[in-house]
């Protein structure tokens, strides 16, 4: 019997379905639901959203192969679900990925509004004069920088330039709060790199001459409008991505 007390937090009205999906997924990863989820009406009451919103969130998780829904049996969590399998889809934050491996995680984030950096011009064929909000994020695992990220969101999509000092680490959540359109999904290109000039790694624990993984992400609205880009560098000593393939 499932109680109606948290592990799930109530949500506001911004991008409710995606936020419901994230809240349910975080509860699954935290082990709150074991192998089976509560019925839709219980989840809706926990989150203070409609059953329609919960159904949409569960459908998305099912499409991505994370849960299985069957009549009479309810909703079960597939055995392979872990942060390692979900990080490339950006279904979980990189902090989850590092925490799953037992690291103490700290995130540092800063931002500036300026012309886009040359790395983005080369990687995405972006206009070098494009003005963007550039957000630099570094994820520390036991005090060592394991993941470095720069997000670039064109200022034409900002609803205000007066951004709070503490911005959300998720570029999806950033778009919900500060942009006139929301990021719906991203495409990811995995690029093998070597840490040497001019390809200095954003994760500064990667020593010169060593290989590392760079991710080039392009962010889109639901209507397939490009909303921005991310460059992500990963030290594979701390993180190795994996994927689940289904027939």
Structure description:
- This protein has 247 residues and is of the alpha+beta class.
- 25% of the residues lie in helices and 28% in strands.
- It is built from seven helices and eight strands; from the N terminus they run H-H-H-E-E-H-H-E-H-E-E-H-E-E-E.
- It has helices at 16-29, 40-47, 51-63, 83-86, 94-100, 118-124, 171-178; strands spanning 67-70, 74-77, 105-115, 131-141, 144-154, 185-194, 211-220, 226-234.
- A hairpin with a 3-residue loop joins strand 1 and strand 2.
- The radius of gyration is 19 Å and the shape is globular.
- The two termini are 34 Å apart.
- The model is unreliable at 1-5 (pLDDT under 50).
Helix residue percentage = 10-25%
- Which spans of ≥5 residues are poorly predicted at pLDDT below 50? 1-5
What is the number of helical segments per DSSP (H or I, 4+ residues)? 7
Write the element-wise H/E pattern from the N-terminal end onward: HHHEEHHEHEEHEEE
Summarize the main sheet.
6 strands, antiparallel
Overall body shape: globular
Average pLDDT level: 85
State the assembly state of the protein chains: single chain
- What is the tally of beta strands? 8
Strand order of the largest sheet: 3-4-5-8-7-6
């Amino acid at each position: 019997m499932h109680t109606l007390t948290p592990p799930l937090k109530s949500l506001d009205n911004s991008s409710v379905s995606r936020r419901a999906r994230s809240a349910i997924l975080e509860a699954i990863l935290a082990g709150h639901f074991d192998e089976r989820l509560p019925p839709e009406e219980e989840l809706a009451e926990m989150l203070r959203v409609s059953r329609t919103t919960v159904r949409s969130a569960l459908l998305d998780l099912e499409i991505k192969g994370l849960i299985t829904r069957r009549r009479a049996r309810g909703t079960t969590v597939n055995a392979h679900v872990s942060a390692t399998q979900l990080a490339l889809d950006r279904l979980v934050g990189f902090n989850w990925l590092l925490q799953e491996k037992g690291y103490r995680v700290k995130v540092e984030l800063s931002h500036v509004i300026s012309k886009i950096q040359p790395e983005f011009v080369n990687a995405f064929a972006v206009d070098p004069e494009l003005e963007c909000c550039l957000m630099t994020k570094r994820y520390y695992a036991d005090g060592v920088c394991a993941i470095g990220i720069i997000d670039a969101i064109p200022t034409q999509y900002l609803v205000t330039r007066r951004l709070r000092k503490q911005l959300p680490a998720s570029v999806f959540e950033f778009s919900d709060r500060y942009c006139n359109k929301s990021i719906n999904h991203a495409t990811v290109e995995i690029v093998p790199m070597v840490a040497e000039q001019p390809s200095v790694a954003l994760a500064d624990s990667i020593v010169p001459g060593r290989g590392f993984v760079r991710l080039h992400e392009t962010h889109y609205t639901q209507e397939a409008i490009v909303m921005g880009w991310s460059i992500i560098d990963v030290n594979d000593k701390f993180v190795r991505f994996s994927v689940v393939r289904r027939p």
